[in-house]
Amino acid sequence: MKKVFYFYFILIVSFASCCTDEVPQPKTETEQTLFLYMPWSSNLTSYFERNITDIEKSILENGLEKERVLVYFMSSSTEASLFELTYENGNSIRTVHMNYSDPAFTTTDGISSILKDVAFFAPATRYAMIIGGHGMGWLPIGSEIDDVKKRSYQKNYGEYENIPLTRYFGGTSAEYQTEIITLAKGIYNSGMKMEYILFDDCYMSSIEVAYDLKDVTDYLIASPTEIMAHGFPYDILGKYLIGNVDYQAISDSFYEFYLNYSVMPCGTISVIKCSELDELASVMKEINQKFDFDPLLLNSIQPLDGYSPVIFFDYGDYVTKLCPDSDLLQKFMTYFDKAVPPQLKKNTTHYYSMSGGLKKINTFSGITISDPSINVKALGKSNTSWHKATN
After folding, report:
1. SS3 95
2. Same domain, 266 and 294
3. CB burial string 302-337: b at 16+ within 10 A, e below
4. Which residue range(s) make up the domain with 313?
């Protein structure tokens, strides 16, 4: 079976003309370039526009010194632009560097091309990337949300009315999906390594996702559950993403915002230190070689999604049910806390799913795993690089 990973959003190949007839000139290298990737996601476009405006508010409030902020935004399924956020005389300025039309589908070369455009217009010592859109963790291309719902009690997106919207539904056809491994290769081939990748998408704090990206980013910032359509509150925490990155403040600010969010006070976040994942995989392999999971314990593991059967389980809780050896479990927790620092993960008492409503969080480790899932959509888990490294 083909090894596949994906997250739901459109990646646009950078095969388009510059917005002017002049030959663009490379810029002087700066300290940090933050790249916001806002692809076509139909029902999320207005929320992306709000996110960009909120980033602008943060820039106006805190300024830019040795940093640049570039945005790749799709206004439709066929049009995109790459522009820079700056401020001048107290006003926010958007300078368009490139316009794109007739976007191609996702490829390693396409991703690299986009990132090379970013590096050309805003070369920097450090790069960071925010990805906005729909997410479904590591699941393969073609695992469309509607297909999942046909096998469970969940409705199609259009059937939901008068309930809070998350960043989960919509834009889910295979033509708008990209494999995680393709993203990783695209970043690698661009010559970049990200200081962090922030997924403003649902279900992306997954051990399978993090393991595929461990060599192209130092940190992964994401949510293991659905994120409300509002997304990250960039007007509040933008200042911590730009310049000297403050992961503690990012985590705390996200939590405080959603703790008091009037639409639905639910939010989960974690920061994963990717350099620690190989050591975590090593001890996980040791556990898997000694113990088999008891399927009778499946319903006792903390779920972190709205599916039936569950696809995304709390990783830490799963291992406590899998490993009866207290010494080996303590060894695991030591490595786990290095990879997912306890102080950098936050959760409200409940998480929210459009299909499942409010669900209680009894235990929270900040990251999910699909190893124990019996959902038909999780059958490809044995093909993930994480599963191969730990079994």
Report:
1. strand
2. no
3. bbbbbbebbbbbbbbbbbbbbbeeeebbeebbebbe
4. 277-390
**Three-state SS across 331-355?**
HHHHHHHHHCCHHHCEECCEEEECC
- If one counts the domains in the chain, the total is 2
Integer-rounded Cα radius of gyration of the chain? 20
Closest CA to 263 of 211, 226, 234: 226
2 within domain boundaries:
no
Residues 202, 7: Cα–Cα separation, whole Å: 9
What global pTM score does this model have? Answer: 0.89
- CB within 8 Å of 96: residues ≥ 6 apart: 19, 81, 82, 83
Could you list the mean pLDDT of each consecutive 10-residue stretch along the chain, which spans 391 residues? 38 37 63 91 84 95 94 85 90 92 70 92 97 84 49 39 52 67 91 96 95 98 95 97 97 98 96 98 98 98 96 98 98 98 98 92 98 95 96 96
Where is 314: in which H helix or E strand? Answer: strand 313-314
| Cα 100 to Cα 114, 207, 262, 351, distances in angstroms | 10, 34, 37, 38
For residue 259, the domain's CATH number is 3.40.50.11970
Question: Cα separation of 108 and 110, whole Å?
Answer: 5
